[in-house]
Design goal:
By secondary structure, this protein is mostly beta strands. The chain is 10% helix and 46% strand.
Length: 341
């Protein structure tokens, strides 16, 4: 039964969470975008280094003193009763220990109707997962390199089954102040299950990402490029709907080229006025766009848009992500700067 429950939960996430390379690991909710800014920039931006306390949930090397005493909460609504959200807070203890960041990610799958093996209704049940994290970063002396780590404690409950696990994120970020270029590499969700659902331990959704971004000199735009899922070269699959059927009734599966597969690792994003009180964001996720596009119909899958608005000590963020004609999602976020009185 646990396999059926897990399938119901994560088939939805495979479609909604950037068309995940999924079905092979537990705790897939860890890869959901943590904030509207992230969502609007494509979902996996790892080169941001500013006051955005949410950024530490994806790259712990971005933790810095500008995040001090900022609290952020974010909320997204998916299909049906599925809801998820995140929260993050950073505190600078002193200039020697620098800054610590704490975060939480949760998802609630809503209520499911229960049935036995012959189809008779039983009791309804729910499913939810949560991860608590603590992050810390340091600057390597006499260099522009920043390195950081997140430690996570993960809890998952699906019907009467439960699992506990732990993971770490490792990140490195290089900042070229002269050319205003940022380079980053992150290894996320490296860990294990402490207790499994039914006695068989499963792997976590470990992912290697590489990113670069640049603030243009004469234009108020910062562009972002992320290469996702670099631990696995082949992320493409043949879509049965695109198979070629011959007159004799035989079917030839879709052939995904090397170039097409390479593009599915790519996420492009741009932020207009990144250092101002009002920001505009746009991005394109190639893998989401390719996997969720419809034949002979344009549905703009893979595109995300958003904005940020700062009003005194409050920062409001919103994102809209296009998946298919039937599934699009919006995310709301609020950040409070307690140092701004």
């Amino acid at each position: 039964m646990i396999k059926n429950i897990y399938l119901c939960c994560f088939l939805g996430l495979q479609t909604l969470a950037s068309a995940q390379v999924g079905g092979q690991s537990v705790y897939q909710f860890l890869n959901l975008v943590p904030s509207p800014r992230q969502a609007a920039l494509g979902g996996k931006i790892i080169t941001i280094y500013d006051q955005d306390v949410n950024q530490a949930l994806f790259n712990p090397a971005s933790i810095n003193q500008e995040m001090d005493n900022r609290l952020s909460t974010n909320y997204a609504s998916y299909f049906g009763d599925v809801r998820y959200g995140t929260a993050a807070y950073a505190h600078t203890y002193d200039r020697h220990l620098q800054t610590f960041q704490a975060g939480v990610q949760y998802i609630n799958y809503g209520t499911f109707e229960g049935y036995d093996e012959v189809g008779n209704p039983t009791t309804s049940f729910t499913g939810s997962e949560i991860a608590l994290s603590m992050g810390y970063a340091i600057t390597i002396p006499k260099t522009n390199w920043h390195v950081g780590m997140n430690a996570k404690f993960i809890s998952s409950t699906l019907e009467s089954y439960s699992s506990f696990g732990g993971a770490i994120d490792l990140g490195a970020l290089y900042i070229d102040d002269v050319r205003q270029l940022n380079f980053a590499v992150v290894l996320r969700n490296l860990g294990t299950q402490f207790t499994s659902y039914s006695g068989n331990k499963e792997s976590l959704p470990t992912e290697l990402m590489i990113g670069v971004s640049q603030q243009l000199e004469n234009v108020p735009i910062r562009w972002h490029i992320t290469l996702e899922n670099m631990q696995q070269w082949n992320v493409a699959f043949s879509n049965p709907a695109r198979a070629q059927n011959s007159i004799d009734g035989n079917s030839t599966p879709e052939k995904v080229s090397i170039f097409n597969n390479a593009l599915r690792h790519l996420i492009l994003g741009a932020e207009l006025f990144p250092k101002k009180g009002f920001n505009l964001r746009v991005s394109y996720n190639f893998r989401r766009g390719e996997e969720l596009r419809l034949l002979e119909q344009r549905n703009f899958s893979g595109i995300s848009l958003g904005f940020g608005l700062k009003m005194r000590k409050y920062k409001f963020d919103y994102s809209y992500s296009r998946y298919t004609l039937a599934s699009n999602t919006s995310m709301l976020g609020l950040t409070i700067n307690f140092n701004d009185h």
